[in-house]
Write a structure and sequence with these properties.
The chain is an alpha/beta fold. It has 11 helices and 7 strands.
C-alpha cells in the first residue's frame, strides 16, 4: 500500500503539489502564535530548559539559530529571523528560539529589541564559576550535553582556569545579566536560574507553564542530565590558585557550592 501511495505522490504534477500545500497552509496553518526568546549564557541549563519546553505539543523551539556555528555573526539576520514567522500547524501556540548574549551584534540586538511581541525567559546560573568551568570542560571534551542513557565522558574531565582572565570573565557574565534585565525591564519577562531548574524542576517548570499559559509541559519526559555534578575541587585542576584569587571578593561564595 505504501509503495502504491508513493507512486501516486510521484505522479502528481509539481504545480498541483504547490497548490495543495498552499491550500493546506491557508486552512490548517497560522502565524498568529506567541513568540518566545530564551536568553542566557552557555552552560546555564538552557539545553535542559529547551528539552522541557519541547515536551509540549503546543511549543516549537529553535535552538541557537544565530550562533557562530550556524552563520557568520553579523550576517543573514533578517533571513534567519524570518523563520520565526513562518506558518505553523494550528496546534502550535508558541514559537521560540535560544539566544546567547553574544550571538548578536549591537545592531542586531537593536533590531531584535524592536520586536516587542516576544516573551522573554532569561536563564542564569547563580554560580558563575561553575558556568566557566563547565564551559571550558565542554570545549575540551567536545561534549555539550548528555542524556539519561549515555555515559558522561570522564576522560580529561577537568580544566585549568586562567586566573589572569578569570575575574574579567566572571564580571563579563554579570554585566551581560544586568544588561539583559535593563533591556527587558518593561517587557513580558521571566527570570529563572539553573540551580532551581535542577533542584526544583517541578516548581520551576510550573512557573514557566504559568508564564507561557501552557499546560502540557512535562519535565519528567526530558532526556538530559547534569554533566558535571562533581565538586569544583575535582573539576578545577588549579583549584587552590583559583580559591586564593577569589578569596575576600564578592565571588568567594562560588567556591562553596
Amino acid at each position: 500500500m505504501n509503495k502504491i501511495l508513493n507512486q501516486l505522490a510521484l505522479s502528481i504534477p509539481i504545480e498541483y503539489k504547490k497548490k495543495l500545500k498552499s491550500a493546506y497552509e491557508s486552512t490548517f496553518a497560522r502565524t498568529n502564535y506567541q513568540r518566545l526568546a530564551v536568553i542566557g549564557h552557555a552552560r546555564t541549563g538552557s539545553n535542559f530548559l529547551l528539552d522541557g519546553l519541547g515536551t509540549s505539543n503546543a511549543i516549537k523551539m529553535y535552538h541557537e539559530i544565530f550562533a557562530g556555528h550556524n552563520r557568520e555573526i553579523g550576517q543573514d539576520f533578517e533571513r534567519i529571523f524570518a523563520t520565526l514567522y513562518e506558518k505553523q500547524p494550528r496546534n502550535i501556540k508558541i514559537v521560540g528560539f535560544k539566544l546567547f548574549y553574544y550571538h548578536l551584534t549591537e545592531q542586531e540586538w537593536n533590531d531584535f529589541l524592536f520586536h516587542d511581541e516576544f516573551s522573554i525567559i532569561h536563564i542564569i546560573r547563580k554560580n558563575k564559576l561553575r558556568t566557566i568551568a563547565s564551559l571550558d570542560i565542554a570545549f575540551k571534551t567536545k561534549q555539550w550535553s548528555a542524556d539519561k542513557k549515555s555515559e558522561i565522558l570522564r576522560n580529561n574531565k577537568n580544566t585549568i582556569l586562567d586566573t589572569s582572565q578569570l575575574m574579567q570573565r566572571l564580571e563579563k557574565i554579570e554585566n551581560y545579566e544586568d544588561l539583559t534585565r535593563k533591556r527587558f525591564q518593561k517587557r513580558s519577562y521571566l527570570e529563572i536560574n539553573y540551580e532551581d531548574l535542577v533542584s526544583m524542576p517541578s516548581e520551576t517548570f510550573s512557573r514557566i507553564s504559568s508564564y507561557l499559559n501552557i499546560e502540557d509541559i512535562d519535565y519528567k519526559k526530558t532526556k538530559l542530565k547534569k554533566q558535571n555534578p562533581e565538586s569544583l575541587q575535582d573539576l578545577i585542576v588549579n583549584y587552590d590558585e583559583v580559591a586564593q584569587l577569589l578569596k575576600n571578593t564578592r565571588f568567594e561564595d562560588y567556591l562553596n557550592s
